[in-house]
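REVIEWER CHECKLIST
Item 1: Sequence provided? yes
Item 2: Single chain? yes
Item 3: Sequence as submitted:
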Amino acid sequence: VSGSYSINTTSTAIDSVIKGVRYIDLIKQSVKSINGMSVTAPKFDIGGEFYDQIASNGNLIRQFDDEPFYVTYKDRKENLMEVHANIQVNNDHIFVGQYDDFYANVDNGGFLSLPSSKFKTWLNERYAINGIDFGYKNYEKDKDEENTRDAVHTESQWSVPNDQVQNTKSIKIGDIRDPFLIESQRKLALKETTSTSTDNKIFVLDIVLLSPSKRGEYSVPLRHNANDDGNLQLLNDATYNWNLLGFQVGDEFILVDTDNADTYSVDEITNNVITLIPTTITPTSLDDIVITEINYPYTNVAYTNR
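Item 4: Structure as written out by the authors:
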């Protein structure tokens, strides 16, 4: 007997909630640790083009918020090259700006007569290049994530039309932007690992405001168990972590159009099991794993990555 089957499936991404700090606060803290100067950075502070940038590290992505968040002034200064920016140290404050903030395109004047025979000019060594290597030090290179060849936050080479020199400027960014490596780090939160090489490396995300009424919702196979207290326990398959979804004890948790459908209150959360207090029904244990549609709030979550 021969035949064929057509199977339609829907893939649903399950969110993870992490803690982070704004990029400008990372800069301010690195300066504060050295001399306590104030920082003026119009393009990075409130209302600026780069204000909505959140920095986290591997530990925070893995929900280890009791570990130190290491940051140095040297690293912050070097990583500003990602957006062609730099730091100027003044007598009483630090200024952070991009190239045009330091080198305005202004005509400073000109010669009304020919210079003398003693007149000489020198090349600006900063521009004595005919090539630029720009890239990131860290991005996903292993076999943990599929389609990593599609990554764009990796390496690039640029040619500069300059036939007077043979020199290359190399810029390497330590901050991590690669979504594949971020996803790989996020998945480590599901494993019982002690430490990784990216725990203290800094990941940067571009963010947008999350709608205040936004709730998480998806269908997933779960095992239902009614405990002795008359509460419902939901057991996941360890492919995700209840603690990473963004809801808390006491929040409203809804089972929609499924077995044990009701509005619940979250009583207890562990990585693989949540305990729910029902509102109107008496939950029952189910013999098999069933597809369960759940709906929950994002508590104290203000942003999502763009």
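Item 5: Key structural point noted by reviewer: The radius of gyration is 27 Å.
Item 6: Recommendation: ____
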